[in-house]
Each structure stands twice: as structure tokens, then as C-alpha cells.
Write a structure and sequence with these properties.
Serine Threonine Protein Phosphatase 5, Tetratricopeptide repeat, about 450 residues, DNA Cyclobutane Dipyrimidine Photolyase, subunit A, domain 3, 3 domains, alpha/beta, about 10% strand, binds flavin-adenine dinucleotide, single chain, about 45% helix
């Protein structure tokens, strides 16, 4: 007879504590089999076989595996397509319910619909929970029940709802009380990274422990890239190796400015949920689809490689290329430079960041790019164009950041500016204006 289990399917929630879906699974009527799928629909599209994010997931799974072995259980880890994996699981187990946490990306939503139908046909229930955001879907909307498309009023409502008495939005889910309900079995082997065609990159990953001192000082320091005074928690929020509820609880105590950044994260997840077209290559504002991008490939290569002749832009790109991280100020400056100064389609830059950033997250990356290109859901007029030299004076006044990432910038070989700022600014304004006028 096949063992009767419920399944918890890990995705962007790779932790055993304060995990909403896992908590509900463990409180259910059957022992819980933890499952993770290295999804071939995603992995097969990654060209870089030393992708550090795959390695990050792998290392995290190894650690979860050890913890589960200590609880006399084991995670079953697959490399395959989710529909096939669930079919094969159904041959070995009598599965009552599959529990999971919500994922708002377009691919994930389509995948989950498919899995839900497949499971239903076998008499298995599919239940999902909110876990990776504080508020999702319809929870923070306007009085007329439509979604917010501008951040400031959204953030006010977000805070107001959080502050209603006794709402419990930040309560943690005490998974640890129910761990005896994991399905008992001997540890199952994990598939090796190399068996999936990937290799270790040797990248170092930031710690998942929030640095309270840093968060306290965040407001005054976060804008200066040379201080390196941001939390570096992006990758942990992306893969759920920390809980957003715990982090927001810290932010509420320690720093309203840091809290605001976490609200931006919820905001972009909400936008992606209501406007999935943005995750499928479309501008949030349709009118901006008309911009005739120049898309000069030589200039794009110079941008990617940090050879534009604008030291701040180049330093940012080199930090990204060398470490998989780029400070937020630089993300804004480099993105604006690509879309406005070079008039290269922001989607090219978005894709480049998606390939390189360790903390890549579709919702925030797309939101950030559309913000910088002026095509997105904020009130920023397209004629606000960052001046990279002024940004440098303001945010890297003694050149520390530049010297760190651009040791060659005083050499004769360092390139002259790829385009003159005043000329590029006027050109961008003219091109944007003309494109919008045609409508
Ligand atoms: C063009 C562009 C692309 C971006 N791409 C991504 C991306 O792929 N993934 C990503 O997580 N963030 C992205 N951001 C937002 C922001 O730059 C990063 O979240 C931040 O730099 C990550 O560093 P940190 O973890 O030290 O953040 P901190 O400054 O310590 O902030 C803490 C956390 O708050 C969230 N956060 C901070 N700022 C933002 C923001 N503006 N929008 C949404 N969430 C925010 C992140 O989860 C971040 O880890 C992008 C911004 C721009 C302008």
C-alpha cells in the first residue's frame, strides 16, 4: 500500500521557520513530505552554468536536508518539470493535499494553475498561502477597489492597515511546534549540481541575519554606495531564507526608511499580480511602447562591460559583473543612462540585470527598470534624467566607490564619454516627446 502523505512544495520560501504554507501543512491530517523541484522549465533557460543563484538554492537545500535528517525526515529533491514530478509522486504516495506558498510571477501562476488541475483530476487538493509579502493581491487597494498604481498613497494605506489594532499581519507561524509531523524516512540523496549541468561559482553569499546597527543607520547612509551600508538581504528575501514578517517587524522598530524600501517590494509584487503584462515584456504605460529605441549594439556592449566613459556608470556595471550585486543608487543611474542617454530599450537592460543580479526578482527588477525608463507606474515625468556626473559629485564625492571598482579610470586607456550629457538629454526628451505626441 502507498503511504498516505500531504506534500509541502518549497519554492521561494526555503526555510523551516515562520513559513505560512509549511505551518498549515504540518498542522494537517497526514504526515508531511517536503518536496523541492529544480524546475527544468526555468533552469534550461539559464545560459550561465555557473549561475550562483542555482548554487545558493543548492547550498540552502543541503542545509535544510541536514535539519530534516535531524528530525528523521527527508526532503525529496527533483530535477524535472513540475507536472511530471507530481505524476511520479502520485505513483509512490497517496497524496491528500499539496500545500505551497503563493508566487505572483506570470510563469509561476500558469504553472500552478496547471498543477492544480492535474492534482484535482487525481482527487488531490492544492492549497496555497500568502508568505513572501505582507499584503498581497486585493489587500491594499483604493477606496474604489482598484489597485494603486502610485507608490506614496499605496504605502500610506499599507501602513494604516498594518497598524490597525490586533490584525496580526506580522505574527510568525510557529512551524517548530509541529515538526514531529514531517513524514519519517531515511535521508534521500540530493541530485548533484553537476548532474543538472551546473557548477559552483565560488561566489560568497551575504549573511541572512539582519544587521540591526546597519538598519538603525540606514536612513543616513544608504544613498552612498562607497559606505556599503545597505542590508544585502535581497537574495534572502528572494529565496525566502529569511521571513518578510520578521524583517518588517525589525524595520518597524528600527527604521521607517528601511521599512519604506520593504513596502516598495510589496508594491511591485502587487503591481505584477494586477498587471501581469509587465512581467511579459510590456511597458506599464502602453503609450511608451511607441518609443523608437536606437538599440545600438556596440553602445550596449560598452554599457554592459562598464566602458561608457562615465565613471559612476562604469563602476556600477563593474560591481555588478564582478559580484552579482549593485547598489540601488547605481541601479537607478545605470538604468537611466541606458534608457535615456543611449536610448536603448530598457528591456535589454532588464534582461542583463536578470542574468547578473544575485537578488534578481522579476517584480522589483521590472519595477525598477520601468521607473528608470519612465514607462512605469509612478508619476515621474520622462524628462527627469539623471546626470551621471552630478550624481557622482553628490553620492561619491571623494571618488572612493569609483576607485574601488574602476582602478583604470585615471589611465589613458579609460574611454572618453560615449555620448555628451547635454546632447543625450535633449535627444531623449525629444524622442520621448515625439513618440508620445503621435498618439
Ligand atoms: C533598475 C533597478 C533594478 C532593480 N532590480 C532589483 C531586483 O532584481 N531585485 C531586488 O530585490 N531589487 C531590485 N531593485 C531594487 C533595489 O535596488 C534592491 O532591492 C537593493 O539595491 C538590494 O540591495 P539590499 O538588499 O542591500 O537592499 P536594502 O537597501 O538593504 O533594502 C532591503 C530590501 O528592501 C527591498 N528593496 C529595497 N529597495 C527596493 C526597491 N527600490 N524596490 C523594491 N524592493 C526594494 C529589497 O528586498 C531589499 O533587499 C532594483 C532597482 C532598480 C532601480
Amino acid at each position: 500500500m502507498k503511504p498516505a502523505v500531504n506534500i509541502f512544495w518549497f519554492r521561494r520560501d526555503l526555510r523551516l521557520s515562520d513559513n505560512a504554507g509549511l505551518y498549515h501543512a504540518l498542522r494537517s491530517d497526514r504526515p508531511v513530505l517536503p518536496v523541492f523541484i529544480f524546475d527544468r522549465n526555468i533552469l534550461d533557460g539559464l545560459e550561465n552554468k555557473e549561475d550562483a543563484r542555482v548554487e545558493f538554492i543548492y547550498e540552502t537545500l543541503q542545509s535544510l536536508h541536514k535539519k530534516l535528517a535531524g528530525l528523521h525526515s527527508s526532503m525529496e529533491v527533483f530535477y524535472g518539470k513540475p507536472a511530471e514530478v507530481f505524476s511520479s509522486l502520485a505513483e509512490r504516495y497517496e497524496v491528500g493535499t499539496v500545500f505551497t506558498n503563493e508566487d505572483y510571477e506570470p510563469y509561476a501562476r500558469e504553472r500552478d494553475e496547471q498543477i492544480e488541475t492535474l492534482l484535482k483530476n487525481r482527487g488531490t487538493e492544492f492549497r496555497y498561502f500568502k508568505d513572501q509579502v505582507i499584503f498581497s493581491r486585493q489587500e491594499v487597494i483604493k477606496e474604489d477597489s482598484t489597485p494603486y498604481t502610485v507608490f506614496t498613497p499605496y504605502s500610506k494605506k499599507w501602513k494604516a492597515i498594518l497598524n490597525f489594532p490586533n490584525t496580526g499581519y506580522l505574527h510568525s507561524y510557529p512551524v517548530e511546534k509541529y515538526v514531529k509531523n514531517f513524514y519519517s524516512q531515511d535521508p534521500k540523496p540530493l541530485p548533484g549540481l553537476e548532474s543538472m549541468g551546473f557548477y559552483a561559482s565560488g561566489r560568497k553569499f551575504p549573511s541572512p541575519a539582519p544587521d540591526r546597527e546597519l538598519i538603525r543607520g540606514y536612513a543616513g547612509q544608504r544613498d552612498f554606495p562607497f559606505l556599503d551600508a545597505t542590508s544585502r538581504l535581497g537574495i534572502h528575501l528572494r529565496f525566502g531564507t529569511i521571513s518578510i514578517r520578521q524583517l518588517v517587524a525589525e524595520a518597524v522598530r528600527l527604521s521607517p526608511v528601511f521599512l519604506n524600501e520593504l513596502i516598495w517590494r510589496d508594491f511591485y509584487q502587487m503591481i505584477l499580480w494586477h498587471f501581469p503584462k509587465v512581467g511579459k515584456g510590456h511597458a506599464f504605460r502602453e503609450a511608451y511602447e511607441k518609443i523608437p529605441w536606437r538599440n545600438n549594439e556596440t553602445e550596449f556592449a560598452a554599457w554592459c562591460e562598464g566602458r561608457t566613459g562615465y565613471p559612476l556608470v562604469d563602476a556600477g556595471m563593474r560591481q555588478l559583473n564582478e559580484t552579482g550585486f549593485m547598489h540601488n543608487r547605481l541601479r537607478m543611474v545605470t538604468a537611466s543612462f541606458l534608457a535615456k542617454h543611449l536610448l536603448i530599450d530598457w528591456r535589454w537592460g532588464e534582461a542583463y540585470f536578470a542574468e547578473k543580479l544575485l537578488d534578481f526578482d522579476l517584480a522589483s527588477n521590472n519595477g525598477g527598470w520601468q521607473w528608470a525608463a519612465g514607462t512605469g507606474c509612478d508619476a515621474a515625468p520622462y524628462f527627469r534624467i539623471f546626470n551621471p556626473s552630478l550624481q557622482q559629485k553628490k553620492f561619491d564625492p571623494d571618488g572612493s566607490y569609483i576607485k574601488k571598482w574602476l582602478p583604470d579610470f585615471q589611465d589613458l586607456s579609460y574611454p572618453a564619454p560615449i555620448v555628451e550629457h547635454g546632447f543625450a538629454r535633449d535627444r531623449a526628451i525629444r524622442v520621448y516627446k515625439d513618440a508620445l505626441k503621435e498618439l
